[in-house]
Amino acid sequence: MEMIEKQLVSAPRNNRYILIVTALVAFLFIWSFSAVNIENVEESGWIIATNILQGIVSPDLDLLLNITSQGVLYLLVETIAIAFLGTIIGALLAIPLAFFSASNVVPKPVAFITRLLLIFIRTVPALVYGLMFIRVTGPGPFAGVLTIALISIGMLAKLYVDAIEDLDTSILESMTSIGCNTFEKIRYGIVPQLFAIFLSIMIYRFDMNLREASILGLVGAGGIGAPLIFAMNAYRWTEVGSILIGLMVLILLVELFSNHMRTKLVKG
Amino acid sequence: MYDKIFPPKKLALANGKSILEKRSRTPIILIVVFIATWLSVHFTNFELDILIRRWTEFFVIIGEMIPPKWEYLPYIWRPLMDTIKMSLLGSIFGAFAAIPLAFLAASNMVKNRVIVILSKVFLSILRTLPTLVSALIATFIFGLGTLAGTVAIFLFTLAYVGKLLYEQIENVDMGAFEAMESIGMTRIHAFRHAVFPQVLPNFLSTSLFCFEGNVRYAAILGYVGAGGIGLLLNEGLGWRDYASVGMVLFMLAITVFLIENVSEHFRKKLM
């Protein structure tokens, strides 16, 4: 018993630190209540909530199972296409950027500047890019593709860099010692180490991009977002229900596929 | 299946044994990816020559943003703070609400299969709902303003933290929990004293990470009228007042950068 008590007494204490952090968080918590406005809550809110639920439970089956270019299925395919092409373009463009921001490949200042650029690319919300690309291509899924490509560059490059900085360089040294040229070193020394990780990152990003692509329609950049928003603003809840159901099923399926592929890639 | 169509290559080793080398699946995956890319190009009307001809337009907008309008700064503070407050409030409430839900969804805590599966399905469905869509629904119910944004962030945090937390609870070391149950504690008590301390650092770290992401999400929620800095972005872009938009984005970048660094500091401490 004495031993246990001794252990208990000798355990490091940082109560004061914990207390200060807790107090800080509590203060911020209370401070943030000042932003909430409840005066806009209307009586009709409850009625609308029940209407939404009813719409989602009884979806517009015609729309859901329609295969013309107005139906949910076509819109879902368009959304997948936007996310897929965007991911591919972004993934390819992110590779050179990632190498330029890896501090074990290029000099430190170059890496720092590239990182700063990537942070800026990452912070701008997707919708803003969407609006900017609409000026380039006109409204439509093409703008969506470019938006998705640009926003994935930031995140992908960040994840790639972690993989590049973990490269096992002793392999390269041993290849130099047996007389491999640069191309062979890249092909047999670097590509096998990075390929699986990069692929896994891309699949993960595709999963995220699908969610992004589903809201880009809000600014007119194609995909299922636009019909969803129109249906909502027109209070057509059965349509909203069928679109949301389609979207949910698709996202769940892609998530299952992505998790399955990534565990396969990681375990080999 | 694949191995039957393309039979594995036979290799004879030096010691006389023969082994089978499976054919690489890379070619077929590459073909599938190429077909998918081609289809996507077709579906999205991707045209390279438009891009080559007009890509400068994109930089025209950036050029207009680049000396940002500093006089606009005083108008930004309040919405920016609103954005941070929204995401903070939503994240804290969401993280707390995630604890009981994760408890119900963890199959080693609750023995009733129906409750476990229902909670898991609920969390998955909640996670598929894009934040912007839940924000839009919330504006219909709670009116325009920050409350709707807070609700949207609350729902997202609940789903995200809830999922990661129940996975952690399921992987926890059950020894202490069983010992406490055997001396007569209720499951909830045993959870509080045996399981919760084990998952607490991870829980806090996940919540912080989620808060980081929420600040970014909260920035666009104003677009559907759910309060915060998105309203200014929407206005600026609508009036083509790109210098103000540049200022908003600049402030947003600084805020996100600061919050990320603070959160990373604490997350490293927790690990």
Written overview of the protein:
Chain B: It comes from Saliterribacillus persicus. Chain B: The chain crosses the membrane at residues 27-46, 86-106, 113-129, 135-161, 215-233, 239-259. Chain B: Residues 80-260 form the ABC transmembrane type-1 domain. Chain B: Keywords: Cell membrane, Membrane, Transmembrane, Transmembrane helix, Transport. The complex is a heterodimer of chains A (268) and B (271). In chain A, 79% of the residues lie in helices and 0% in strands. Chain A has helices at residues 2-10, 15-32, 45-57, 61-65, 72-100, 108-123, 126-137, 141-165, 169-177, 182-216, 225-233, 237-267. In chain A, helix 5 (72-100) packs parallel to helix 8 and helix 6 (108-123) packs antiparallel against helix 8 (141-165). In chain A, 37% of the residues are buried. Chain B has 2 domains: 2-65, no CATH class; 70-270, MetI-like fold (Orthogonal Bundle), CATH 1.10.3720. In chain B, helix 5 packs parallel to helix 8 (146-170), helix 7 crosses helix 8 (146-170) and helix 11 (230-238) runs antiparallel to helix 12. The two termini of chain B are 44 Å apart. The interface between A and B is large, with 62 and 62 residues.
**Helical region count of chain B?**
12
Task: Look at the structure and name the CATH superfamily of the largest domain in chain B.
Answer: MetI-like
What CATH architecture of the largest domain in chain B do you see?
Orthogonal Bundle
Helix-strand pattern of chain B: HEEHHHHHHHHHHH
Shape of chain A: extended
Mean pLDDT over the residues of chain B: 83
CATH-level-2 architecture of the largest domain in chain A: Orthogonal Bundle
Strand order of the largest sheet of chain B: 1-2
Text of the CATH class of the largest domain in chain B: Mainly Alpha
**Which fold does the CATH topology of the largest domain in chain B refer to?**
MetI-like fold
Query: How would a crystallographer describe the biggest sheet of chain B?
Result: 2 strands, antiparallel
Structural class of chain A: mainly alpha
Would you report the number of β strands of chain A? 0
